[in-house]
Amino acid sequence: MPELNAESIAFRSALDVVRSVEPRIADAIAQELTDQRESLKLIASENYASPAVLLAMGNWLSDKYAEGTVGRRFYAGCQNVDIVESVAAEHAKALFGAPYAYVQPHSGIDANLVAYWAILADRVEVPYLKKFEKRQINDLTDAEWAELRQAFGNQRLLGMSLDAGGHLTHGFRPNISGKMFDQRSYGVDPATGQIDYAALRESAKEFKPAVIVGGYSAYPRKVNFAKMREIADEVGATFMVDMAHFAGLVAGGVFTGDYNPIPHAHIVTTTTHKSLRGPRGGAVLCQPELAPQVDRGCPMVLGGPLPHVMAAKAIAFAEARRPEFATYAQQIVANSQALAEGLLKRGVQLVSGGTDNHLVLLDVHPFGITGRQAEQALLDSGIVTNRNAIPNDPNGAWYTSGIRVGTPALTSRGLGVAEMDQIADLIHTVLGATTPAEGSKAKFNLDPSLADRISKQATELLAPFPLYPSVDLG
Ligand code: DSN
């Protein structure tokens, strides 16, 4: 019997301990690995974290309360959490070349709320805000919101429209940011599918926002952040960038100069689990003048920090500082562009005609189906994607006319441009074989034997690229 390596021993032992209490949970954890190993994961916002990142989360750091910031906690005994948070922030600053890093946010939504609060708090008299600083943002009454909005004076936000690829947290009603701000959207030029900076400038001059938000969750192109900062300066707005999707491309040096948000934005938010390959969580990077307000994130906006996740963030940031991460980031984009080319040459219509980043947005309207039908047909064929609205989507945000595909996860597995062409072929075959069920935007017809064949081909394609090759659960 060959000796087991440290990672296999660690995960096997952890599962044995979990199984001794509740076998169903151990089984679900093990099954998740099996399922992920077998599926062609093209969800643009997902990835595979390293075993070191995963293992850094499963420990007693989770037992500690540490509200406050490093050296200024509301609880005693935070000396080890202080080390963890400091090391994570140190790596984040070095990785991104950012003056200040706050690594507590539990998610991208939380990171954006911390940033919004910091921006607004920076614009009003601090004594006034004192009244609210011990409150959780979600507990404010409508009257208190009205009072705050009045005090903030100018609380308009200009962000990317949802159908152009913006995110709910960029001032849309289903998210609390839609309560904090009056939102106006900028979109894309219908002819190019790309941001129309001249229109953005005109809109900013007319609307006079307090905040301009750059960044997206479904826009397949790079963004000129230098130009956006110029516009923000012209109208006296704070420029915030949500780089959750493309943080790995910033860290890996794919987006540089005008396309790197860090030197241009006043404040940048991110998640740590997408192209960055870290644990599920968020972070805020900012210029020094906003740091004191950002530091008030907990308890103003956030619950107690998750020290075990901050530990995993530190590992992920450290990993991303290695030279091989830059190679990985370049490969994400090479793969995405190969996938786009493979789809285009088979006649698939892409929003903006291609991609500069980790994602490709397919317009499935020409196949006569909705995004929802396409998503399920692909899933039935072993290809995991998600439906997404496209600019001016006639099917709205629920059924949609788009499919978003991304390459960070498959690139982590080692797939390259040759495999991307094969994947384009599988996607094209499934979409071409799917027809809508009579009168339905959700139900569809797809020959099960074709779905089964594609699914087998997907599994075969993945076979030379084992997921977590160092982890053998037996
Ligand atoms: N849910 C993330 C995404 O899929 O893009 C953004 O929050």
Automatic annotation (TrEMBL):
Q: Which UniProt keywords apply?
A: Amino-acid biosynthesis, Cytoplasm, Methyltransferase, One-carbon metabolism, Pyridoxal phosphate, Transferase
Please give one Gene Ontology molecular function term for this protein.
glycine hydroxymethyltransferase activity
The record's Pfam families line, in alphabetical order, gives:
SHMT
* InterPro entries xref list: PyrdxlP-dep_Trfase, PyrdxlP-dep_Trfase_major, PyrdxlP-dep_Trfase_small, Ser_HO-MeTrfase, Ser_HO-MeTrfase-like, Ser_HO-MeTrfase_PLP_BS, SHMT-like_dom
Q: Is Repressor one of the keywords?
A: no
* GO CC terms: cytosol
Where along this sequence does the record place binding of (6S)-5,6,7,8-tetrahydrofolate? L162, G166, H167, L168
Instruction: List localization entries.
Output: Cytoplasm
**Catalysed reactions, as listed in the record:** (6R)-5,10-methylene-5,6,7,8-tetrahydrofolate + glycine + H2O = (6S)-5,6,7,8-tetrahydrofolate + L-serine
Where is the site labelled Plays an important role in substrate specificity? H273
UniProt xrefs under PROSITE patterns = SHMT (PS00096)
Q: Which SUPFAM superfamilies match?
A: PLP-dependent transferases
Domain Serine hydroxymethyltransferase-like, chain residue ranges per copy: 20-122, 155-427
Pathway assigned in UniProt: Amino-acid biosynthesis; glycine biosynthesis; glycine from L-serine: step 1/1; One-carbon metabolism; tetrahydrofolate interconversion
Q: Which cofactor does it need?
A: pyridoxal 5'-phosphate
Q: Which residues carry this modification: N6-(pyridoxal phosphate)lysine?
A: K274
User: Which Enzyme Commission number(s) are listed?
Assistant: 2.1.2.1
Biological process GO terms, please?
Answer: glycine biosynthetic process from serine; methylation; tetrahydrofolate interconversion
Keyword match Protein biosynthesis:
no
**Entry similarity comment:** Belongs to the SHMT family.
The role this protein plays is:
Catalyzes the reversible interconversion of serine and glycine with tetrahydrofolate (THF) serving as the one-carbon carrier. This reaction serves as the major source of one-carbon groups required for the biosynthesis of purines, thymidylate, methionine, and other important biomolecules. Also exhibits THF-independent aldolase activity toward beta-hydroxyamino acids, producing glycine and aldehydes, via a retro-aldol mechanism.
| Oligomeric form and interacting partners | Homodimer.
The protein's name in its UniProt record: Serine hydroxymethyltransferase
* Native source species: Actinoplanes xinjiangensis
Name of encoding gene: glyA
